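for the recovery benchmark. tokens below, seq after
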């Protein structure tokens, strides 16, 4: 079988290349050049985009040469800037916390890769995601399942995929543990360094560990200082710009307080950052918009039990979901900490991802 391999040059795609070659498949490698921040400090720009720096590029070429398959380098920097970076910045301007990784998987990686399959006459697309795809024999429906390794599980990021995309995709690492992947990397003598083993989970398009400096560079003209207030309206300090804060954050830059406070809300209209006693506020339900179902949508206007994840590696939480059209409400079985609007809530039935949407 001829397989299109998403070849970043990281440990996962490198191991997949050797696995698929051992299984007798013909490979065509594709590596994307994505946008990196031109306004970052000069010394930081050496890191480029964390997903596609010079080091991973060299490793990808080494492996393609070693296994004798073509490697195509494709520039998606303009598309990535428009669909992912601008999406993230626009959300931050509006006072929410977008998830650009989900946006990237849906609108950049899979869309571009699946389009390229026809160009290179490939039958399947292989990526390094820690998730599984299973075809249901009775219905021919494709199910998206959690990866076996719960420390690396990535099905949360993939809820935007559809049946035709799952039908053409394979995840060779979905049934493997990360430690097994490391062992295979040693077996295949894949050249790896300490950075590859650390595998930063930060956003890829700025060099710093947190988005604070990146947001200052791109939103400085729209960010304004404002009041930090409690629910009762008591002003306790001044924030430096709403995009710099996230729900649950406790370092708010106000000293001398007798209690530990955390961010529980933002009010973009009044430009106020709202705080409360840490762990003092709980959430019972959340509105979810822009719904997407992987296969058949469940019945509308019915309370349906689901488990939900609100972050990629968070524990699944039980509850009931009721929706109509493109909007629904998830009622949690147990009250939980406040959530960040703009992030995704993903619905599960056991190991299977059913769908999800963006929390309002």
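predicted aa per position
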């Amino acid at each position: 079988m001829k397989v299109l391999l998403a070849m970043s040059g990281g440990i996962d795609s490198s191991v997949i290349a050797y696995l698929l070659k051992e299984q007798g498949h013909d490979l065509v490698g594709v590596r994307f050049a994505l946008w990196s921040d031109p306004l970052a400090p000069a010394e930081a720009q050496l890191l480029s985009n964390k997903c596609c720096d010079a080091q991973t590029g060299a490793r990808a070429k080494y492996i393609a040469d070693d296994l004798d398959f073509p490697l195509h380098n494709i520039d998606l920097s303009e598309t990535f800037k428009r669909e992912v970076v601008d999406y993230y910045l626009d959300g931050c301007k509006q006072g929410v916390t977008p998830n650009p990784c989900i946006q990237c998987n849906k609108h950049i990686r899979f869309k571009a890769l699946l389009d390229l399959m026809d160009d290179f006459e490939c039958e399947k697309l292989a990526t390094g995601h820690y998730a599984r795809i299973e075809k249901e024999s009775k219905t021919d429906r494709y199910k998206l399942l959690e990866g076996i390794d719960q420390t690396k599980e990535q099905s949360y990021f993939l809820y935007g995929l559809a049946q035709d995309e799952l039908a053409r995709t394979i995840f060779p690492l979905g049934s493997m543990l990360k430690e097994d992947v490391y062992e295979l990397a040693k077996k295949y003598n894949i050249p790896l360094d300490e950075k590859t083993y650390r595998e930063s989970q930060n956003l890829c398009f700025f060099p710093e560990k947190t988005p604070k400096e990146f947001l200052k560079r791109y939103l400085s003209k729209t960010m304004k200082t404002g009041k930090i207030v409690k629910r009762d309206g008591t002003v306790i300090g001044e924030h430096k710009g709403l995009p710099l804060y996230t729900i649950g954050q406790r370092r708010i830059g106000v000293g001398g307080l007798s209690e530990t406070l955390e961010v529980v809300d933002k009010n973009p209209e009044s430009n106020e950052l709202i705080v409360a006693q840490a762990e003092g506020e709980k959430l019972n339900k959340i509105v979810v918009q822009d719904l997407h179902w992987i296969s058949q949508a469940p019945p509308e206007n019915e309370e349906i039990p689901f488990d939900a994840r609100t972050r990629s590696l968070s524990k699944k939480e039980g509850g009931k979901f009721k929706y109509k059209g493109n909007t629904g409400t998830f009622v949690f079985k147990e009250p939980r900490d406040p959530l960040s609007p703009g992030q995704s809530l993903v619905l599960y039935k056991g190991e299977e991802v059913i769908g999800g949407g963006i929390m309002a």
